[in-house]
Structure formats: C-alpha cells, structure tokens
Amino acid sequence: MIEFRSVSKTFADGTAAVRDFNLVLPSHTTTVFVGSSGCGKTTLLRMVNRLVEPSSGQVLIDDVDVATRHPVELRRSIGYVMQHAGLLPHRRVLDNVAVPLRLSGVSRAEAAARALAALETVGLDPVLARRYPRQLSGGQQQRVGVARGLVADPNILLMDEPFGAVDPIVRDDLQRELLRLQRELGKTIVFVTHDVDEAFLLGDQVVILRKGGQIAQAGTPAEILADPADDFVRSFVGLDRARRTLHIEERAGRQVVVDGDGRPAGVLDPA
Ligand SMILES: Nc1ncnc2c1ncn2[C@@H]1O[C@H](COP(=O)(O)OP(=O)(O)OP(=O)(O)O)[C@@H](O)[C@H]1O
To answer: Ligand 1: does its nearest atom lie under 6 Å from the Cβ of 46?
Structure first.
C-alpha cells in the first residue's frame, strides 16, 4: 500500500505543484492519476521514488516513510517507466532492459537471461534484443521501457504517460497488453495520463486532479461515471458529451445501445 499524507510540494521558484494531497493506493491494484497538463501528476508520481522530495507531509510504502529509505536503494526496488521509453541510445535493447539488474549487482549472465525473459513477458521477439533502440518502432520501444520497469520484479511500478507518444492503434495494443500483464502479475501500479479513456480502461482507482494536485474526485470508473462529484468532473470525463450519454432503443427486436447523437454503440447481450 502506498499512502500520501498531507503531502505538499512547492518548487524552489515558488510553484505550488501539489497542496495537501491525501490518498491511499491499495496494493496489487492500478491507480491512475489523470488531469490536464501541469496539474501535478508527475510531481506526485516522482515523490513515491524520491526523485522529488515533498516540501511537507509524508509518502509511505507499507507504513514506512520513504524519507527514511536510502534513495538509490528505494529507486532500485521500484519499477519506473517513462514517457518516450527513456532508453539509452547507444546500448542494445537487451542491455537497456538489464540496467536495473546490473545496477543492483546482478551478474552479466544472469541479468541477460532475466532481461530476455522480461522482453518475452511484454510480448517482444527475442531477436530484437540485439538491436539498438532506434532500430525499433515507437511501440516496440515502449514495450522495452515496460520490460525494463518489470525486470527486477518490483512490487511497485510507476508509469508516467508511458503510451503518450505512440499512435492510437499501437496505444490500444499496449493498453490491452498492460491489462493482461497486470492480471498475471498483480503489481501495485501508479499510472499517469491526461487521457480519461485510458484512465477508465486501466484504473481500478481513478484520481481526477485539478491544478495544484487537488483531487476533484477519486473512485472506480463506475463510481465516477455514475456519480460525478461536480460539473468539473462531469465535463472532464465527457458526461456532457453525446458519446457517454448512452440509452437503449428497440430496433428489429433487439435492444440497441445508442449514444446521445442516436448513433448505435452496441447491442445488449441477453446473457
Ligand atoms: N523542477 C520544477 N521546478 C519548478 N516548477 C516545476 C518543476 N517541476 C514541475 N514544476 C511545475 O509544477 C507544476 C506541476 O507539474 P507536473 O509536471 O507535476 O504536472 P503534470 O500534471 O505531470 O503535467 P504534464 O501532464 O504536462 O506532464 C507545473 O506548474 C510545473 O510547471
């Protein structure tokens, strides 16, 4: 379990990125921080592995304040997947994935074997292991980033807009793959995105943020859709737009689900 207790962050230039943030992120579930640019998502994420230190308040992992942990040792125990994958251009794919293991003192041979297994876990062909990052597609590079995040088998995986830079079809693929992986692995995932559809697809808990890391609403996707906290949330999740206002119409003897513009979205499954 990760817990934020009255966490605030004001940067040296006076920017108040996060103000009095309180939240529990249950273990083995995915929590998604979603909000517009600059609302503090990345700052919150980076306080978990101490890439950013809170100005006040505490971040706890399983009741231990991360401020009491050695930052390097803490970071090695937490997987981190960045936007644009963040791969080292002059290292082969296999070596990129093996980095967290090598930094932890794992032998070259064992690191290589585990890196290969991690590439397989994320659905990449082992022949790609010998290539350099530039010789991969954007989607493949993102998979390598996820493999590197998972290679040391961390309990916690931080993912900062990991699928933001790929086209919608590849993105769809990567999202499905992450759902499959999470069903198998049951990590505690903290995922940052500005895309509310991605948040609803991946999140067990979705946290909608306003500027300053203020929680507009936190809950399951169903809770948020069924009972939006206010007009900001209603508008942010698109409840004021036709595609979310579904209703049922009888057509040709079937119950057809239709959106607010009258466009069919699907049929009700009698089972
Ligand atoms: N090192 C820093 N120094 C000063 N201000 C910063 C620093 N890092 C972030 N900020 C500011 O803090 C606020 C929150 O930034 P943060 O990166 O957490 O937002 P975000 O929601 O992740 O945005 P985006 O979706 O654009 O990545 C912004 O106003 C940003 O400009």
So the answer is: no
